[in-house]
């Protein structure tokens, strides 16, 4: 089985498109997985690690009103993160992660909750996954794999440029 990151880079190169990432709880792990692939510079444009709310606002254009109303761990924030990354990077697609890797959390936003967003500029898809209290490392790894799968699915849906 070809690793997800390799499939993503190959599919993006085949379509002549570029990728951006916007990460909070995964702290750059999605970008690292993509840039681990030789030749990824032909498809990977840039990644944003926006751990703080200030960074989300300043670097990605997430609205303070969105953070105030829904919090950083929300599909609304993930949507604005991926859309902002795509716009600022001038890339074809972008994926975003924001969540509670742990330890900790609350009854309202438990440990292991991660919100994702992926966009191609025409459509944006968001999803929340409850990974559970697997431990910080395991939540981050699971979130990285999930984000990569969402990104691959979005890229595959884009027609070839030829």
| Fraction of residues in β-strands | 15-25%
Number of helical elements: 6
Which sheet architecture does the biggest sheet show? 5 strands, mixed
* Radius of gyration, CA atoms, in whole angstroms: 15 Å
Instruction: Work out the number of β strands.
Output: 5
The dominant shape is: globular
Rounded mean pLDDT is: 95
Query: Ends: how far apart?
Result: 27 Å
Judged by helices, strands and strand pairing, the structural class is alpha/beta
Order of helices and strands: HEHEHHHEEEH
The amount of helix comes to: 40-55%
Strand order of the largest sheet: 2-1-3-4-5
Low-confidence stretches: none
Short description:
The protein is an alpha/beta fold and 162 residues long. It has helices at 4-15, 29-35, 53-60, 64-70, 75-89, 136-156, and strands at residues 19-23, 44-49, 93-99, 113-119, 124-130. Strands 2-1-3-4-5 form a five-stranded mixed sheet, with helices on both faces.
């Amino acid at each position: 089985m070809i690793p997800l990151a390799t499939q993503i880079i190959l599919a993006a190169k085949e379509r002549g498109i570029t990728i951006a990432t916007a990460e909070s709880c995964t702290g750059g792990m999605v970008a690292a997985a993509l840039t681990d692939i030789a030749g990824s510079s032909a498809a990977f444009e840039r990644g944003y690690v926006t751990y703080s709310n200030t960074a989300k606002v300043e670097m990605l254009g997430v609205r303070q009103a969105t953070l105030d109303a829904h919090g950083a761990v929300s599909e609304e924030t993930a949507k604005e993160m991926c859309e902002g990354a795509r716009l600022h990077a001038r890339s074809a697609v972008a994926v975003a992660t924001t969540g509670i890797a742990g330890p900790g959390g609350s009854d309202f936003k438990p440990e292991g909750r991660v919100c994702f967003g992926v966009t191609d500029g025409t459509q944006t898809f968001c999803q929340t996954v409850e990974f559970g209290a697997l431990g910080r490392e395991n939540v981050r790894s699971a979130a990285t794999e999930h984000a990569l799968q969402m990104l691959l699915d979005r890229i595959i849906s884009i027609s070839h440029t030829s």
